[in-house]
Design goal:
- The protein has a three-stranded antiparallel sheet.
- The radius of gyration is 20 Å and the shape is extended.
- A hairpin with a 5-residue loop joins β2 and β3.
- The longest helix has 25 residues.
- It contains six helices and three strands.
- By secondary structure, it is mainly alpha-helical.
- The chain is about 55% helix and about 10% strand.
Length: about 120
């Protein structure tokens, strides 16, 4: 027979802010798209060039999702053929410090793994 589950003494918010923040970044490549839009607005083809391993289908889906979540804006350019430019919204920019922190940890991990691999040789 298991132990009874005790009731939490911490008042939980109606929705978890961490879950809500992470939900903005869900989907493959979403943080990468935000990362590459951080410096300046980019066109679809430029983003495909920036992230070579992403398929056009996935990039298109991710841009639509990020736009629907209010993180990215799409501006149609008056060119022939028609083109669109994507940019971060103020809400999208608020995610940059978190993404930069994750990238910093990633760089440390890669350096550690590379250092460990050279020691094993």
């Amino acid at each position: 027979m298991g132990l009874p589950v005790r009731k939490s003494k911490v008042a939980a918010p109606p929705t978890c802010p961490l879950t809500e923040s992470l939900a903005l970044l869900r989907g493959a490549w979403a943080p990468n798209v935000i990362w590459y839009l951080s410096a300046e607005p980019r066109r679809f083809g430029e983003l495909r060039h920036d992230i070579p391993r992403i398929s056009a289908r996935v990039l298109s889906a991710r841009l639509r999702e990020l736009e629907s979540r209010g993180l990215v804006t799409r501006r149609v350019l008056d060119t022939s053929p028609p083109s669109a430019e994507y940019a971060l919204t103020p809400l999208g920019r608020e995610l940059l410090p978190a993404i930069q922190a994750l990238a910093s940890v990633g760089r440390k991990l890669v350096a550690e793994w590379e250092g460990g691999a050279s020691k094993r040789r």
